[in-house]
Amino acid sequence: MNVELLKLLLPSSPVLEVTGQSHNCMTSEDVNTLMGYSGLTETEYMFVINKYLDSEQGLNSKFYKIIKQEILELLDNKNILKRNKVHYANKTPIKIGKLLKMAIIEVTVDKCFVCSGTGFLINLNNISTCPHCKNGIFNYTDDVRKNILKVKTNDYLKCKKIYLEILDYVKNLEISALDKLDKMKI
Question: How far, CA to CA in Å, does 53 sit from each of 45, 56, 110, 147?
Fold first, then answer.
């Protein structure tokens, strides 16, 4: 090649300094390292993957199997199944697995799915506040839970105490996982 063409293509004085700025963002490797050293249990790890990384891995049957077993042991230790005259998980009006899935939905899906988290319903003629949420955060009431579970009111009320224990367990699972991750700040 001609020397004159090379002079035109290459800068006259090459600078070997780093010109880019360091962006304060996390890469996927950072997330993997953080989760690897945080000491999360398998259930906490799968929960975090399910909620925050929006992955289908957290929704697999192994996750439900593990967490369902933990919940059954918790309910058995607290004698909640016996207090409600339910001796086996399959004899409840609503199965434990269905209650567990509802609790996971309640903890992981906080954005209102009716108004898409805006807090407003927009029609052709008017704009109104969404009755299903407060500022875009969905409001889970007993009627909403009953409708999502597709059960009768009486059946829901029989299992409400069990459901609230399961919901409390799932919320504590999230809090525990976030505490462990918070201790691993980079």
Answer: 11, 9, 15, 28
Region 147-157: what's the mean pLDDT? Answer: 88
Q: What is the pLDDT of residues 9-25, one digit of tens each?
A: 555 555 545 555 555 66
Could you give the CA distance from residue 160 to residue 166 in angstroms, rounded to a whole number? 10
Q: Whole-angstrom Cα distance, residue 92 to residue 57?
A: 29
* Contact (CB, 8 A) for 64 and 100: yes
Closest by alpha carbon to 130, among 116, 144, 143, 146?
116
- Hey, what long-range contacts does 41-44 have (CB within 8 A, 24 or more apart)? 42/66, 43/67, 43/70, 43/173, 44/173, 44/176, 44/177, 44/180
Look up residue 91 and give its DSSP letter: G
Q: What is the C-alpha separation between 42 and 48, in angstroms, rounded?
A: 10
Task: Give, in order, the Cα–Cα distances in Å from 175 to each of 43, 108, 149, 180.
Answer: 13, 12, 25, 9
Tell me the CB-side half-sphere exposure of residue 41, using CA atoms within 13 A.
12
28 backbone φψ class: left, alpha, beta (φ>0; ψ -120 to 50): alpha
Residue 157 has, within 13 A of its CA and on its CB side, a CA count of 3
Chain Cα centroid distance, residue 95? 22
Kindly tell me the number of DSSP H helices and DSSP E strands found in the chain: 8, 4
